[in-house]
Amino acid sequence: MTQPSCFDISIENNIAHIVLDRPKAFNAMPRAFWNELPAIVNDINDNAKARVIVISSTGKHFTAGMDISVFTDGEGMSAGAGDQYARAEAFRQFVLTLQDSFSCLDNVRMPVIAAIQGGCIGAGVDMTSACDIRYCTEDAFFQIAEINIGMTADVGTFPRLCKLIPEGWVRELAYSGRRLPAQRAKEIGLVNDVFPTQEAMLAHVMELAAEIATKAPVAVAGSKRMINYARDHSIADGLDYIATWQAGMFAPPHMMEAFAAKAQKRESAFPDLAPLRKKM
User: Fold this and answer.
1) What pLDDT shows up at residue 71?
2) 217-264, superfamily in CATH?
């Protein structure tokens, strides 16, 4: 993979740390961002390079959201000529492509933890709502800012946020464009905890990531898949699916290793996830 322009990436002790790295631009998301993020995440997933992914940021704000250049450079909102319905259909495909840039976080086999400081605006809410766990600093705020520029948020905020916080809050934020401050975000369940500084937050996040990385990767991947499936289906469907999953993925050797490690007072030694086969 070529060196990305919007991110700094490090992988250590089975933890992949993806850092938004355009602080002077408040980590706004230009066209390159939307191509680089899924390439990075899918590479980690497909090649089983880590057991946990952490996403953090640099500078004053986590992200100012989508850069307007996404709509104005090359193909975009007004691009194309000819029939208006053909243009509308093409624009729909463009939005679906943007959505896929964040859906990779939902679909990746390993947990994704977001560490948020300052503003998490517009597409930042789309992105972090696709993560498994969110933490933030006391100065953080969340804003569905699309309404303030005359558009409906369309890259994942509503389908996911309605599963994370009470619908009334989603509606208030969506209709008004108001900021949701850190403490209220914790109170309604959007973030797990709030920290006084980014350093304290990252220390906690890395400690949690390190703990997750010691668990059996197949069991962690299964837990993520079951939670996502339960979110999107009925209880009956969820119970049926986990029974089917266990029929193929139940791993007695991994359980025996966990028991042995505990008895011997040592760290468990579990096999990593296998790289995915993409070609015949």
Assistant:
1) 72
2) Lyase 2-enoyl-coa Hydratase, Chain  A, domain 2 (1.10.12.10)
Which 3 state secondary structure label does DSSP give 195? strand
Encoding tokens for residue 17?
């740390």
Q: Can you name the residues that pair with 250 across neighbouring β-strands?
A: none
Fold of the domain built from segment(s) 7-213: 2-enoyl-CoA Hydratase; Chain A, domain 1 (3.90.226)
SS3 assignment for 145-187: HHHHHCCCCCCCHHHHHHHHCCHHHHHHHHHHCCEEEHHHHHH
CA distance 7 to 235: 39
Residues of the chain with pLDDT under 70: 1, 73-81, 279-280
Q: In the chain, where are the structural domains located? A: 7-213, 217-264
From the list 180, 121, 170, the residue with the least C-alpha distance to 145 is 121
pTM of the complete model = 0.94
72 HSE (CA, 13 A, CB side): 5
Q: With the C-alpha atoms ordered 182, 187, 189, 191, is the resulting torsion angle positive or negative?
A: positive
